[in-house]
Amino acid sequence: ITRQYVLDMIHRSKNPCQDDLVVVITGATGGLGQAIVNIVLEVGGFVVAVDRDPVALATLVQQKSKYENKIRTVVADFADLESVARAAKEVAQQVTRVDILVNNAGITYSIDDKDDDIKLAEQSLASKQNFDLLFQINYLSHFLWTDLLLPHTTSQGRIVSVTSGFSWGVNGTGLVPNGESDPPASRVVGNQSWPRHLAMAYSHSKLGQIWHMAEINRRNQNSTRALCACPSWAATGISGSEQGRQ
After folding, report:
1. pLDDT tens digit string along 59-88?
2. Worst-scoring range by mean pLDDT, 45-49, 75-79, 99-103, 112-116?
3. Is 232 left (phi over 0), alpha (psi -120 to 50) or beta?
4. pLDDT mean over 230-235
């Protein structure tokens, strides 16, 4: 029902999706990302599907075989900034322009309200560049990704970050650098003293995304526009557990 509603809305709009509209989507093999891939292909767009799992990308292409000329894939691990940079270069080589850039890939930590500090010590939270893993995947890598692909977006293009109403869970102070050190929200265990780090990590990353989109709009008032989209509750696997999906 939801997908049909979106399709009807697109077809009723004054500016329906044009043929070969180029849409680049991160986290494209599951959850919201795959749903967006399905919609874009159904309305005649061209998809660059980005994900860390090459097998899942191959499966996606196989499932969408009737759209074989409308989909390309790029492997990118957003836990590694070097991988993100390589993938952005590959996207720029595969397409002549980007009409819509959808920043969707993301993770969250599976926690409860007890023993947050203990769980923080037990989990591996470091990215390859030694930032907090969630903060890098959700925010830092997408910041780099957007910066590298922004020159390739069309003048009427759109950047859409899948953010969250959970951004209200923090007040932004964790995103502010302290002197010469990185913002507390970006640090890993052993290098940070931010209380309730694990419980607040997702909110920090989402507020960072919102501020990023606002800054792009401030700097590009007459060109590419940046948007935030909160999907509300969606039964995806972002929490990493079936309980979270339920």
Report:
1. 999 999 999 899 999 999 999 999 999 999
2. 112-116
3. left
4. 76
C-alpha–C-alpha distance, residues 186 and 59, integer Å: 34
Residues in contact with 181: Cβ distance below 8 Å, sequence separation at least 6, in sequence order: 187
Phi, psi (rounded to 5 degrees) for 33: -60, -45
Q: In whole angstroms, what is the distance from residue 211 CA to residue 166 CA?
A: 14
Query: Residue range 99-124: average pLDDT?
Result: 70
Could you tell me how far CA 85 lies from the centroid of its own chain? 15
pLDDT of residue 194: 60
Residue 85: Cβ within 10 Å count? 16
Closest by CA position to 29, among listed 62, 70, 66: 62
Q: What token pair was written down for 145? A: 């990704």
Q: How many residues make up the chain in this entry?
A: 246
